[in-house]
Specification:
The protein is of the alpha+beta class. The protein has 2 domains: 165 residues, Uridine Diphospho-n-acetylenolpyruvylglucosamine Reductase, domain 2 (2-Layer Sandwich); 291 residues, Cytochrome P450 (Cytochrome p450, Orthogonal Bundle), CATH 1.10.630. Helices cover 56% and strands 11% of the residues. It contains 22 helices and 12 strands. The strands form 4 sheets. It has a 5-stranded mixed β-sheet with strand order 1-2-8-5-3, sandwiched between helices. The protein binds protoporphyrin IX containing FE. Pfam families: p450.
Length: 488
């Protein structure tokens, strides 16, 4: 234990420091956690909707401070985990283009989110990860996603119907907090993709997973302290009970499946994949349960919060709302939207890209060097974690120009390559071999829900909206997004 908590971190820091890499001095056990919390609580927020889109300064004030103090490459400590922060463009390029499996997912994530994710695709490494990716990837290819469009329509219609009813009840203009609607939309889509015809059961599972996720996020940075996750604290006990309920529910669906007709959904692929791997009964169950949980976590909140931010930005920028609505109506001409029409909606794509630039749900892309690795001049010793702060890279004025914090979808008129000096820093869906598997599905979902909402309603920001992005598991609006919605 002494070696893990004291000797190993000191050795790693010494190897980084030999290369001239500096950073704030850590304290025993806590590393820099106290300083991080202090910087976060000192942030002054401007709640007016017109306040700047500089989320990096709001959510990671400590990183902004250390960047100025120690340069664009520095080290700090979360508990006994050593982090190398990299924001220097050449080094970022080397890391984002690295395809070696030795650059894996951090083991602290595995420990911290173990209850939530088990050993599924999101946090596993090496052969286990490669096996899981091989099974899941084909299920999310574009041709499969096209086959999900009908389901996505059904999920969107539920939102449209509720908004219409609410608007009528409130005399033609309703003040709607849209977050929960976007969540149930995204949850509904993912339930159907995962669980096919058993999607009602899927929704029950996902509600419990959401509760588990909330319990986990309450623990936040405190889990940087080694050993905390094993203690029978109130939130740990809650998390363990929910974990068991979720596992039992998923296995019940699998059992019912064995007696029913063949389904072509993600759950079926996982069951088949586990069967073909000749795993033990227990390992098969774990494989299926963990990956269902992983897909849910990866695809639910991320898509919901992206749709929410995008609608907030469209409400705040009426000219773009008109441009995109016009495009949607011109391309659809009263017909049912299909994948081909969505592909042609260029202005809509630009708005989504810009929204994901300013509010990428995943704020940090992190990796662990599973062996000693070299990126340009930097030698990263085995066991060190690398952090790329997506938020800062997405809004760096050196890369995006002096209007980097302004919402301007036009910057994507010539695609990502034309939008900035270093296109590899645009990474809302991550980078390299671990890039998001659900990107196609997410983009089709976002395009469809926004296109349908724009063709049915006009919206503006409600006086009840306060602008306050916070970092929970994803970057989300602290008090939700309130819109004034009118039927067209
Ligand atoms: C707008 C919505 C979404 C965003 C912004 C997003 C973003 C990301 C990011 C940043 C990563 C990590 C990549 C890295 O570490 O380099 C990731 C991984 C992943 N995402 Fe998404 N995602 C979204 C939607 C989805 C959906 C809908 C699904 C599935 C249904 C999904 C499935 C996955 C999976 C399975 C991984 C793990 C890939 C691996 O480790 O091999 N995502 N996503």
């Amino acid at each position: 234990l002494f070696h893990e908590l004291v000797v190993k971190p000191m050795k790693l820091r010494a190897r980084l420091s030999e290369q001239g890499i500096k950073g704030p001095p850590p304290t025993m056990l806590f590393g820099n956690i106290r300083e991080i919390k202090k910087a976060q609580s000192a942030v002054v927020r401007d709640p007016s909707p017109s306040s700047t889109h500089n989320c990096a300064a709001l959510l990671f004030p400590f990183l902004q401070k250390w960047r100025k103090q120690y340069s664009e490459v520095f080290m700090f400590s979360l508990g006994n985990t050593q982090i190398l922060f990299v924001n220097q463009p050449d080094a970022v390029k080397e890391i984002t283009t690295c395809t070696s499996l030795a650059l894996g997912k951090p083991s602290y994530q595995q420990k911290e989110f173990g209850t939530l994710l088990g050993q599924g695709i999101l946090t596993s490494n090496g052969a286990l990860w490669a096996h899981q990716r091989k099974i899941l990837a084909p299920e999310l290819y574009m041709d499969k996603v096209k086959g999900m469009i009908d389901h996505i329509f059904e999920s969107t219609f539920t939102v449209l119907k509720s908004w219409k009813t609410q608007i009528e009840a409130e005399g033609g203009l309703a003040d709607i907090k849209i977050d929960e609607y976007m969540r149930s939309f995204s949850g509904d889509v993912i339930s159907r993709a995962c669980f096919g015809s058993s999607y009602c059961k899927g929704e029950e599972i996902f509600l419990k997973l959401r509760a588990l996720q909330e319990t986990m996020s309450k623990k936040s940075l405190s889990t940087g302290v080694p050993g905390m996750r094993y203690l029978p604290t109130k939130s740990n006990r809650e998390a363990w009970a929910l974990e068991k309920e979720i596992r039992d529910l998923i296995l019940q669906v699998v059992k019912e499946r064995k007696m029913a007709a063949y389904e072509e959904d993600l759950l079926q692929m996982l069951v088949e994949g586990a069967k073909n791997s000749y795993l033990s009964q227990e390992a098969t169950e774990l494989f299926v349960v963990d990956n269902c949980k992983n897909i849910y976590l990866a695809g639910y909140e991320t898509t919901a919060v992206s749709a929410t931010w995008c609608l907030m930005l469209l409400a705040a920028n009426q000219e773009w709302q008109h441009i995109v609505r016009k495009e949607v109506l011109e391309i659809s001409r009263g017909r049912t939207l299909d994948a081909d029409m969505l592909r042609k909606m260029k202005q809509l794509t630009m708005v989504i890209q810009e929204s994901l630039r300013l509010y990428p749900p995943v704020a940090v892309v992190s990796r662990e060097a599973l062996e000693d690795m070299k990126f340009g001049e930097i030698l990263v010793p085995k066991g060190v974690n690398i952090w790329l702060l997506v938020l800062a890279l997405h809004t760096d004025p050196e890369i995006w120009g002096k209007e980097a914090y302004t919402f301007d979808p036009n910057r994507f008129a010539k695609g990502i390559a034309g939008a900035c000096k270093l296109p590899q820093v645009y990474m809302p869906f991550g980078v390299g071999p671990r890039m998001c598997l659900g990107q196609n599905l997410a983009l089709v979902e976002l395009k469809l829900v926004i296109a349908l909402l724009l063709s049915n309603f006009s919206f503006s920001l409600s006086p009840n909206y306060t602008h306050s992005p916070v970092l929970r598991l994803v970057i989300e609006p602290e008090n939700g997004v309130h819109l004034l919605v009118k039927k067209l």
